[in-house]
Amino acid sequence: MNFTGTLKQAILEALAYSDIFDYPLQLKELHRYLPVRAELEELPDTLESLHGQVGVKDGYYFLPGREEMVEIRKRREACSQKLLPMALNYGRMIGALPFVRMVVLTGSLAVRNPSGNVDFDYLIVAAPGRVWMARAFTLLFNRIVKLFGHTLCPNLIISENVLEWHLHDLYTARELCQMIPIMGMDVYQKLMQANGWARDFLPNAILESADLPSTLQKQASVLQGFLEFPLSGKLGDRFEQWEMTRKIARFSKQDGFGEETVFTADLCQGNFDHHRKWTREAFEGKLSALAAVPGGELVVTQSSPGTAIGAGRL
After folding, report:
1. Which of 48, 72, 123, 169 is the one with CA 20 to 30 A from 129?
2. Closest CA to 170 of 281, 297, 303
3. Distance of alpha carbon 47 from its chain centroid, rounded?
4. Distant-in-sequence, close-in-space partners of 148: CB < 8 Å, separation ≥ 6
């Protein structure tokens, strides 16, 4: 679904979404998250025409009356400086585990905006037929990491067979564009290609292959292949089925089980806190408040972040 509003409205919507997370935007970031295609050079004059509707401090843009977010962001970025290297190192270790084909960092740390106690959130792509085994190895590794005071959260594990996400919405588009690839560049490229629909929501934000870090590992290591060998046949099939069956039975009884928790042979999505729903409701509230401002520019035109506009393969 393409955005049909003006550039002024697009700017306000982008700032409203980031406002939910106390995250003011620099000029390049604002351009990156616009819901309409535009040139970076167009923004300064347009922002000037939004005087009174957009604030600016130290090069950060935000909604009026939200100047305090600039200091919040600076503090959180300072915190990220020591957390991010650890998260990337752990991600590389996850990438070496059996049946893991790609690892990306997601969540607040991926945008250097952590608040409170920080878990390291990852999206993992697993070999076909080995989603639950890859999850099991990751959680086993997490037990070791916890001894050092850190927590790894593989909130989303998908098979290479289903790289296109099943909900086409702003929330997912933002997540795709904000994540940091760590391991598995070849699979990461396929993931981004499979989710090209995200350009409908964020036409300035999708990474092209030329923008990807050249250091990303492209294929599994010899050691990884050695560890996978005994579990690649019927024995592995039986373990995979056993692990999936018992975990789904357990998850179905857990608080928060619902529309944002999806468990199949190809997908393990454990969003028990319903963050998508919370984001959607907060964003809609921001848009409604802005639209109610007398003389304001905003007319609500964007699909809310949790509204699906299409269907993928899941």
Report:
1. 169
2. 303
3. 27
4. none
Question: What pLDDT, on the 0 to 100 scale, is given for residue 54?
Answer: 96
The SS3 call for residue 105 is strand
With respect to residue 104, please indicate whether it lies within any of the assigned structural domains.
yes
What residue numbers bound the domain in which 222 lies?
81-274
**Pairing status of strand 152-159 against strand 120-126:** parallel
Contact at 8 Å (CB) between 10 and 25? no
At residue 275, the pLDDT reads: 86
Residue indicated by tokens 């994540």: 179
Quote the DSSP letter at residue 122.
E
Whether the model clears a pTM of 0.90, i.e. scores above it, the answer is: no
Question: Is 58 a domain residue?
Answer: no
pLDDT of 220:
54
In a domain, 234, yes or no: yes
For 124, phi then psi, to 5°, come to: -120, 135
Residue 207: inside a domain, yes or no? yes
Spatial neighbors of 69 by CB under 8 A, at least 6 apart, are 19, 22, 23, 24, 60, 62
Q: How many domains does the chain have?
A: 1
Q: What is the pLDDT of residue 308?
A: 40
Q: How far apart are CA 112 and CA 20, in angstroms?
A: 15
Structure tokens at 95: 């990438």
- Cα atoms in the Cβ-side hemisphere of radius 13 Å centred on 250: 7
For residue 39, report the phi and psi dihedrals to the nearest 5 degrees.
Answer: -90, 145
For the chain, which ranges sit under pLDDT 70? 1-2, 206-220, 294-314
Nearest alpha carbon to residue 97 among 269, 227, 234: 227
The token duo for 124 is 């993992």
What stretch of H or E contains 280?
A: helix 275-291
**Cβ atoms 191, 206 nearer than 8 A:** no
